[in-house]
Design brief:
mainly alpha, three-stranded parallel sheet, 5 helices, single chain
């Protein structure tokens, strides 16, 4: 009996939410979805939004490029509908979200990035073959903040 009451409560909550959502959409004649997060993916999202809105003028999408951490923060706070991040929510964040929002966050990849090593060594005229260890050493040097010779 207790499980049935929980199920009925959940269905009623969902119905009321959907009703409010449908009423707001009907009144504005335009669905508005807000996003925030990844600055890396911003240019791609902007183009997608531009093209999507040409096909679906009754939908308005906004996306602010504040960084992945901001995207996660605003999703957790419930102030945006979607976010771009460098990675999915961790287990603690997901449990917190489920507890407070009574639903799950859906994670799916939309953009993939890569770093490309470049060099400017005027006295070297031959191609350089970076070994994995050399790339690790260069990355460690770059993160140390010391760039002598640059």
């Amino acid at each position: 009996m207790h499980c049935n009451l929980k199920l009925i409560s959940a269905v009623l909550s969902l119905a009321l939410s959907m009703s409010a959502f449908a009423t707001a959409w009907a009144q504005s004649d335009r669905l508005v979805l807000h996003g925030d997060g990844s600055s890396f993916a911003y240019s791609m999202y902007s183009k997608w939004i531009e093209e999507y809105e040409k096909e679906k003028p009754d939908v308005r999408l906004t996306y602010i490029s504040n960084g992945s951490g901001a995207g996660i923060h605003y999703v957790m706070m419930g102030t945006v509908d979607f976010a771009g991040t460098d990675g999915p929510l961790n287990q603690s964040q997901m449990l917190d979200f489920i507890t407070h929002r009574l639903c799950y966050v859906l994670h799916f990849p939309t953009a993939i990035g890569a770093d490309v090593p470049i060099y400017n060594l005027p006295k070297i005229t031959e191609s350089i073959n970076f070994t994995p260890q050399a790339l690790v050493d260069v990355a460690a040097f770059g993160h140390a903040g010391s760039r002598k010779g640059c």
